[in-house]
Amino acid sequence: MTDDDLLRYSRHILLEEIGVEGQERLARSKALIIGAGGLGSPVALYLGSAGLGEITLVDADTVDVTNLQRQIAHSMDRVGQPKVVSARTAIHAINPSVTVRTVAKRADAALLDELVPGMDAVLDCCDNFATRQAVNAASVRHRVPLVSGSAIRFDGQVAVFDPRDPTSPCYACLFPPDQPPEETRCATMGVLAPLVGIIGSIQAAEAIKLLSGAGRPLTGRLMMIGALSMEWTTIGTRRAPRCPVCANSAGPHRS
User: Fold this and answer.
1) Which of 60, 162, 176, 184 fits as disulfide partner to 168, beta carbons 3.0 to 4.6 Å?
2) Alpha-helical regions (H) of 58-178
3) Do the Cβ atoms of 108 and 134 come closer than 8 Å?
4) What is the pLDDT of residues 83-129, one digit of tens each?
5) For residues 180 and 177, what is the distance between their CA atoms, to the nearest angstrom?
6) What is the pLDDT of residues 5-58, one digit of tens each?
7) pLDDT at 255
8) Domain boundaries, the chain
């Protein structure tokens, strides 16, 4: 770690739960962020500012004026750019030493099977049920921890699913693939701008904990917030014995 690193990350290093060793673990870590919008913006900015070694951003969309109310990685001068390119610019404006890979494609099963292996964490910041299920399935197949978040209107939720932990459920244990909810999107339902920042910041915090070894991750718990009353609810979660994704699935071992 250089003198510049010691200065830049000094507030992390002062935390005994992270320290120099934890910060060095972050510098060696790779994270995959699915979605560079409302949730992906704070996730990408905080992981970049925290000194992650490599961040891969996946999003097929371009920046639109309607995004700017909440997607803080983007700006007026980057309207029309691919979101992944815009987010990379925002990360590098804060921390140019972070390696940022961009993939301007939709996250389908084939792409996820190409990208997830070798990652240390996957962060689901997408906005639709089908992609969430595909990301979860890839996380289970390749035994990479998944930090999942969602937000709509005034309600948000966040959870950690860790297929390396035999007691951890996966996303499909809680939300079965064959029971899709009525699809709700910000474009039709709206979303409180700071809510995506709250949920995305928690996702970033959970990823930093997982990667640095600090604290207790949110594995086995689902946190929900109702922002109208600003009330948090946390419930315990369990593996579904007949889950079509993770039941009896050990997945490939990672070295």
Assistant:
1) 162
2) 83-94, 109-115, 129-142, 171-174
3) yes
4) 999 999 999 999 999 999 999 999 999 999 999 999 999 999 999 99
5) 6
6) 999 999 999 999 999 999 999 999 999 999 999 999 999 999 999 999 999 999
7) 36
8) 3-152+191-216
Measuring CA to CA, how many Å separate 26 from each of 13, 49, 54, 159, 162? 12, 11, 9, 21, 18
* CB neighbour list of residue 18: distance below 8 Å, 6 or more residues apart: 12, 212, 214
Residue with the two structure tokens 């079965």:
176
What confidence score (pLDDT) does residue 188 get? 72
Q: With CA atoms as reference, report the closest residue to 175 among 139, 138, 205, 148.
A: 148
Cβ-based neighbours of 41, under 8 Å, separated by 6 or more: 70, 71, 72, 73, 74, 87, 90, 196, 200
Question: Residue 191 has what DSSP assignment?
Answer: B
Type of residue at 10: S
Domain 3-152+191-216 is found in CATH 3.90.76.10 = no
Give the separation between CA 210 and CA 168, rounded to whole angstroms. Answer: 14
pLDDT of residue 185: 63
